[in-house]
Amino acid sequence: MDRNRKREAADERSQEKRACSSSEFRPCSSTSSSQPPPPPQTDSEMESSSSGRSDRAGDSGYGSCDSDDFAGGYDSRNIVGRGRLQRVFSGLLDDGSGGSAQLAALTELCEVLSFCMEDAVGYFPLETVVPPLVKLASHESSPDVMLLAIRALTYLCDAMPRSAEAIVRHGALPVLCGRLLAIEYLDVAEQSLQALEKISRKQPVPCLQAGTIAAVLTYIDFFPTNPQRVAVSTVANVCKKLPPDCSTIVMESVPILCSLLQYEDHKLVETVAACLVRITDCFAGSSELLDELCKHGIIQKSLNLIANDGHRSLSRATYSGLIGLLRKLATSSLVAVQTLFELNISRTLMGILMSSDMLRDSAYVSVQDMQTNQVYEVLKLANQLIPPVLRDVPDDQIELAKEKILVDQPNFLHEFSTDILPVSVQVVNSGANAYVCYACVSIINSIAYFSTPDILLDSIKSTNISSFLAGLLSRKDPHVIFLTLKTVEVLMQKLPAVFLSSFIKEGVVYAIDAALLVQEKCSDSVSEHSNDHMVVRDTSRCMCHAFNSSRVSASESKTCRLQKDSIQSLARHIKTTYFTHEAVDSEMGFTETLQKLKILCTVLNDNVDSCSTSDGCLQNEENLTQILLQVMREFSEGESMSTFEFIESGIARFLACYLSNGKYLSGTTSAIDLSSHILTVLKRFQIFSSICLSNPGQSCDNMLLAVLLKKFQNALSSLDNFPVILSHGFKLRNTYTDIPVRGITKNPCLRVRFVRQNEDTNLSDLDNVVNVDISSSFDALEGYLWPKVNKGKNGHRTESADRKADDTTSGIKHVSEKNPIETHTNISQESCISNSAEVSRQEEQYLPAVDSSPKQTMSAKEVTEGSSASPSIGSAKPKLTFSLRGKQLDSSMTIYQAVLEEQKGAEFDMVVGSKFWSEVYKLTYKSAEEPKANDSEMLNCVPQSSVFWNKHGFSDWKYPFLLAELPCKIDKLNALYDVLFMLKIFEGMNHYLFQLLSDERLNSFAEGRIENFDDLKVIVSSIPQVEFVNSKLNDKLEQQMQDPLVLTTGCMPSWCGQLMAACPFLFSFEARRKYFYLTTFGSLRSQQNNIQNLDGSGTNSLNDRHSYSGSLRKKFIVNRNNILESAVKMMKLHAQSKGTLEVEYAEEVGTGLGPTMEFFTLASHEFQKVGLGMWRGDLSYAGRSTIDGYSEFVLAPFGLFPRPWSTSTDVSGVAEFPEVIKMFLLLGKLVAKAIKDGRILDIPFSRAFYKIILEQELSICDIQSIDPELGRTMLEFQALVNRKRFLESISGDSSNLCYRNTSVKDLCLDFTLPGFPDYALLSESTKMVNIVNLEEYVTMVVDATIGSGISRQIDAFKSGFNEVFSLKALQIFTKDELERLLCGEQDCWDFTELVDHINFDHGYTGSSPTVVSFLEIIQELERDQRRAFLQFVTGSPRLPPGGLAALKPKLTVVRKQHSSCDADMDLPSVMTCANYLKLPPYSSKEKMRHKLLYAITEGQGSFHLS
């Protein structure tokens, strides 16, 4: 078989021009396989254009897509003239010149058609041209003529899609298929594939009838990858419209298609999967045809693809489609059911459901997205394998046959129930919506119904099914409750002895009693899924039929199975049959543990604040400690306690009252008793901490704190009732709004009518409907309404007020009309973060002030850009209050949040539909009353003198969570508030574990319980932060942030912001990162920074937003030789810009993501250079020159921390202090801009510096993380000071104290800062340190190191940072998480991670020898080499948070077409904008290693075309 290599010059020129001028790659011959197309440019991180990086310029032909080759070459409107076409047609018919005339004519025709589209072709006589082309396509004597004729047909279909009908009509299909069934020339065959693919798009049925499927698949293995993709695309086109009588033709292709599922090319596999899904859909109505499909191995091949980590390699749509294919087969084919059970389908389904991203998908899936959701498809498949007990057709023969399979082969049911039942429970507990929850309960109910008692016991042995069912009974959807009750009934029928006590202990009986009471009150609402004024659930089918088989017609699935009193009747039946008073009493109702715990907690609560005398207080505290020990022993040593018992015991509230000295709920403390109250709180906290952290050196899993944490997390999941609000049918569109500004907004609006409260005669009426942006605060409503309703002294509205209001709104309207998009962005950003920022400030007012200096005030501009809280906080008192349906609205929320808050309660998950937006909401307004004084504000009077704390054995105030109320609107009488409060305490205890233990050691040393300074050393084993994440709440927040309305506006239900402010640790770092970008910068920023992984749902609106955000880029030209100067200019111009910075280097062609990432890397390196005087460890400050042998960069093994500068000494030298301040100001701007734009900095800040960024107070303990030797010495000195103070309090003699057997005086320490001899702590720096002034020395050293010595630098950093966005927005992160957010990750890679997260394309697959060698090489790279490789490929030496998996675009490796004959002579090159590595096929691994290391070392420092 020969490959035809002949090409005409014009054809080559045509091919080249097409590649450069077309935005879509059009493969046209086998040359497409030798010259890969440019990488796809659909990812948002591609930025504005491609940039290539290489060791040399222009080494490949497909680097830049901005070629101007086409310019001036042709004009598509002029090339198609009648005379030219006539000449071409004449040449086609001229067969007397030996074929040369025909070749010339075909060449010219291909050239003409290659640049034409249908609207530019004009006159083109298809009936004249097509017949000779078809004839020439069968011209076997001349392969060149055949090739060009088929290519002309391909181009004709491309330029004129309507020509496909004429081509088919004139008999081209048999000719083209013949070229594939009898391959003589591979080029001709490849071109035939291209032609058939074009024709099949418009003529699928004729292609099917002509045998196209068999033709393209018969010899598919002979073709390279690109032609194979074309072949299966042809089959996919044909399968779009399969006629009913095509089963024989299609069935013959199924074995080949199934075998193709095993190929490594992902695009090929996805197209084949689409073909099989369409074929299955076509045959779904025939059980016989489905049985035949199964016999061809479609189940085995599909299941293998799904099971082998398919969700990583396949798109979401393809993955869901394959699961749906199995579900459709199982619906009507008994062969499929039998085969699936034999292949242990349950293990595969379990693996899918247990994966973290699948569990997240299982949560709040919107109704319109369910058909493409993987978890939904898995649950539908499971419901088809185990027939449901409640059926639409009782005598369905297929369902009866499935039952027989389970009865005849009980091992199938055993395997299925053991795998699926526990994971179904896990899916629901992760926070599933009503539909997913109903599906899981349906599976569990069916398993319980069909299982024998032995199988059932084995299935639930690892699952607390009783607690699970009790939780389901607390839900509000009647379908879920009814099915749960049916499950309870089945379990009691089969295993009454096992479940009676368990149901009592776990609260199932209690929940049934509660359900009976609830149903009696609201039985009228069972048949209705929403009240008239509630959020509308737009569902087309009742939940009873959500998982029906497709055999049930739509008309049969409209009637709900639930009757008006179904739940009440079933609950009453279960109660009277299984849970009679005699049966419940025989089980003692409550367990002995619960009764004992209730007694202990009651005693604890009664004595928590009883104290009359000092001796009585001491005795009372001792008694309380003993009771507390008994309570804690119940957790560590007692029998297992159920979540229901834990909540019922009230332990959370009793512990909260104990730790707050009885002021937990009242919060009132007189100013006189405040100091005593705080001292008691601190002492109790220390006692409680010592109990919870007993044996801190042991494993964290064995600590009592870990046990308590798990109990409280389970209680939180059980008590959780926060709704997820989903928007149905939401589309992004321009809307006119009246509030907060008149103009056009992208946000949706609520229709509001303002109505004056009748008894308020001081206000005027205002009766008109206005549009209110959903992100509007109540301050905005008041600002709009007050000038219109305010009456002057004479009782009438003043004209000046009206004029002022009109002038204000007209001015705003003018601005809005000039730039409506900018105005919209400002409004949404301000409003979106106002709630969370306000909550943060509410928290602050309960904390002791740590600095009496005036706080920095935010400008109006910062407020507008989302960098501060709502202006109502700390500003003028509100003039108006608003209510809706008689309920006063919370003014700290947005209007959208307030309306949702008023309407919530009907269901756990609510859907915002069309009725929500069309309804007119009547807001009643009245004059605001004088606010009452907040008793909790008295806590601001906490004494701040360090002497106060030191006298009582505490080094300083560093436990801010103790005296703070939770900044959320949850009712304090709700058990949920108690649980959240204690979780806050636990997290604070874990966070401050080192300080707590250090304080305990210092106190022990002071009192003489330990004598050796070495015993002050603390080794902590804290609980991992991930243990504080509540998976249910985290999944709820994740799903809430995926809602299209939230992605567009950033507006979320109020609970999201309140919980984020009160207990951010409840959410994972990934969830908080998304929340941070959405609420701080708005949806446009989150989309541009790839925070949302886009799937098939909502693609159009998201793409619209992306294109809109693309206009906000700010391009800046940088001088590579002076990075810092460029950074100064850049920040001066763009620090406050809402646009994303895009860097281009002067005199270099590259621009986009790669150069931008490199700029931030290089800029971060500039700040680490010696001689700047910024950091500790900079040895060249104060006139010193750089020491020989030292690095160019500051050596900071424990991270960079500001170098202290004296406030009293005028230090001059290499780095003047004003310049240091400027550098910190610039650094603050750069860090903030990097976070805002999602860029990575390569700068190793110390942990203490991250605490400063988070505005956390530093203490003496933090010095050890900066300078371990200095920190340890200062801590030992502090212990000596405490010992001296204690001895003086009891005996007055402390003269014999010494430090490590040496007198303090003999240490010869003067009052200069250690390590900084030019920093005088006193004006008399020659004064020596002794035991008398040691305390003064320690205080001054600590203050100089982490206080006044760095305060001006820190203020400058914060000032610069706040110019970009508010520093307070970062306080939802920990210091370790902030480092990940700012500096990304640089962990080692394992082979599996590399394979999973790197794409191989255009000549390479995951098993290619070159690829295997490449993966081995980069896995073996040392740390510096790995950093250089990442810098070379991505522009940054670090990966983004999340590692390789989070790299966007995904790292892609393609085969580089080398310019020379020997690939070993070529070097790798990259396109950093696309993370696109072009790797030559080297002959050996060692050769590849050498070339790769050379490229990443020498190829740095410039961007050119590659």
UniProtKB/TrEMBL annotation:
<dbReference type="InterPro" id="IPR045322">
    <property type="entry name" value="HECTD1/TRIP12-like"/>
</dbReference>
<comment type="similarity">
    <text>Belongs to the UPL family. K-HECT subfamily.</text>
</comment>
<dbReference type="InterPro" id="IPR000225">
    <property type="entry name" value="Armadillo"/>
</dbReference>
<dbReference type="Pfam" id="PF25579">
    <property type="entry name" value="TPR_TRIP12_N"/>
</dbReference>
<feature type="compositionally biased region" description="Basic and acidic residues">
    <location>
        <begin position="1"/>
        <end position="19"/>
    </location>
</feature>
<feature type="compositionally biased region" description="Polar residues">
    <location>
        <begin position="822"/>
        <end position="839"/>
    </location>
</feature>
<protein>
    <recommendedName>
        <fullName>HECT-type E3 ubiquitin transferase</fullName>
        <ecNumber>2.3.2.26</ecNumber>
    </recommendedName>
</protein>
<feature type="domain" description="HECT">
    <location>
        <begin position="1120"/>
        <end position="1506"/>
    </location>
</feature>
<dbReference type="GO" id="GO:0043161">
    <property type="term" value="P:proteasome-mediated ubiquitin-dependent protein catabolic process"/>
</dbReference>
<feature type="compositionally biased region" description="Polar residues">
    <location>
        <begin position="853"/>
        <end position="873"/>
    </location>
</feature>
<keyword id="KW-0808">Transferase</keyword>
<feature type="active site" description="Glycyl thioester intermediate">
    <location>
        <position position="1473"/>
    </location>
</feature>
<dbReference type="Pfam" id="PF00632">
    <property type="entry name" value="HECT"/>
</dbReference>
<feature type="region of interest" description="Disordered">
    <location>
        <begin position="1"/>
        <end position="69"/>
    </location>
</feature>
<dbReference type="InterPro" id="IPR016024">
    <property type="entry name" value="ARM-type_fold"/>
</dbReference>
<dbReference type="InterPro" id="IPR011989">
    <property type="entry name" value="ARM-like"/>
</dbReference>
<keyword id="KW-0833">Ubl conjugation pathway</keyword>
<feature type="region of interest" description="Disordered">
    <location>
        <begin position="789"/>
        <end position="875"/>
    </location>
</feature>
<dbReference type="GO" id="GO:0061630">
    <property type="term" value="F:ubiquitin protein ligase activity"/>
</dbReference>
<dbReference type="InterPro" id="IPR000569">
    <property type="entry name" value="HECT_dom"/>
</dbReference>
<dbReference type="InterPro" id="IPR035983">
    <property type="entry name" value="Hect_E3_ubiquitin_ligase"/>
</dbReference>
<dbReference type="GO" id="GO:0000209">
    <property type="term" value="P:protein polyubiquitination"/>
</dbReference>
<feature type="compositionally biased region" description="Basic and acidic residues">
    <location>
        <begin position="796"/>
        <end position="807"/>
    </location>
</feature>
<dbReference type="InterPro" id="IPR057948">
    <property type="entry name" value="TPR_TRIP12_N"/>
</dbReference>
